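FORM 7B: Structural annotation worksheet

SECTION A. Query
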Amino acid sequence: MNLPHSQRSLTLFELLIAIALLSLMVLGFASIDLFSRHQVLTADRRAQVQNEVSFVLEHMSKQISMAIGDANQIPVNIDTPGGSNPPWRRIRVWIDSNPDGIRDTDDVEIAYEWNRNNNRVRYWPDFTGPNEEISNRVTNFDVSQTDNYVSVELTSCWDPDGTPFACGTSDNPTVTMRTRIRMPSVSTN
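SECTION B. Predicted structure
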């Protein structure tokens, strides 16, 4: 007996194929969503780390470029305790606080200090006074002076203690930036 077109029904085989195709589509959309969320999260973390390192380097550049001194009045002191893996590093710089181009009693000594144990960088606007934390993600802080230039290299990580993901992975991005700061009011002779 031949039923009219309006009374036909789906067979079990056709229904199974439809369910399988629908499942594949749902799985595909879920994979795309999961991949996209992971990429956005990773990009956001990397951007935050880059912004923080950039902020610290800009802060240091602005302050250290105002250094003043000469061979008799050393403008920059880089303190690093002995050993190949020091627990902290500090750079102290005399700043011309009253921009007269002369090292005098009105000038102040500022400082930046990095602590390896807690990955913090602190800034002292006056080395004898209170300090402020400007970063808590710095995993390496290298600073050196050549003539009237200070070179700074910072490495920072999203989660500096590396748990549960090690620094440098896509889940815990790391960023290294370096700069060379010119000190125009420093005489090397």
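SECTION C. Observations
The radius of gyration is 29 Å. The chain has one domain: 50-186.

SECTION D. Sign-off
Analyst initials: ____
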